[in-house]
Amino acid sequence: MKPQANELVWQKVPGVKRAREIVIDGASWSRLRRMKVFGSLASVESKGGSWTLKRVGFFRPRVSIRKADSNETFGVFTPSFTWFGMAGILELDGGLTYRWTATRSFGREHAFVDQSAVPLLHFRGGPGKCRMTIDAPHDAPHLPLLAALGLYLIQINEEDSALMGAVAGAAAAGA
Fold it and tell me: Can you give the pTM of this predicted structure?
């Protein structure tokens, strides 16, 4: 069954720090929780499963995805460029791939598309107010994981942009 094209909002989880979730029909559908203020480790909880996300690598950054109860890599998101978050490919165990792509300029709208370039999820806004539209059936494989990963990539990209701005400002002040 295909959902209606309505926007969902990643909302704060009451009583849980650094956590956001999508609620559908009164129940948590996908929840992303950043584990520490500094660091990239995050957990994903959904009816479809539980995973951890972590950015790894410095010169070739990527996101490692593991099932919550395993040390084995379940998937890897690799950005298309040396910087983070604007576009990339997610490769999951078993050979499934999804593409993360900017759908509008300035990086404020993104989508996950499948191998046939069919849109599955659209994201709009920044980490503080991220809206998401589901274009695929709610029970499509890995959809809650893709939803959480999309928000995670938006968060990481925002943090990187703020850090680069601070470094540029400090360099200009020291010149």
Answer: 0.86
In this prediction, residue 3 has a pLDDT band, given cuts at 50, 70 and 90, of very low
What is the token pair recorded at 154? 């938006």
Per residue in 107-161, pLDDT tens? 689 999 999 999 999 999 988 889 999 998 777 789 999 999 999 999 988 886 6
Q: Residue 174: left if φ>0, alpha if ψ -120 to 50, beta else—which one?
A: alpha
Contacts of 83 (CB under 8 A, 6+ apart): 160
Yes or no: say if 82 and 65 are a contact pair by the CB < 8 Å rule. Answer: no
Residues 6+ apart with CB under 8 A from 161: none
pLDDT in tens, 93-102: 989 999 999 8
* Assigned CATH for 7-164: 2.40.160
Distance separating alpha carbons of residues 142 and 59, to the nearest angstrom: 28
Provide CB contacts within 8 A for 65, sequence distance 6+: 51, 52, 53, 73, 74, 75, 76, 77, 92, 145, 149
| Residues contacting residue 149 through CB under 8 Å, at least 6 positions apart | 44, 53, 63, 65, 77, 90, 100, 112
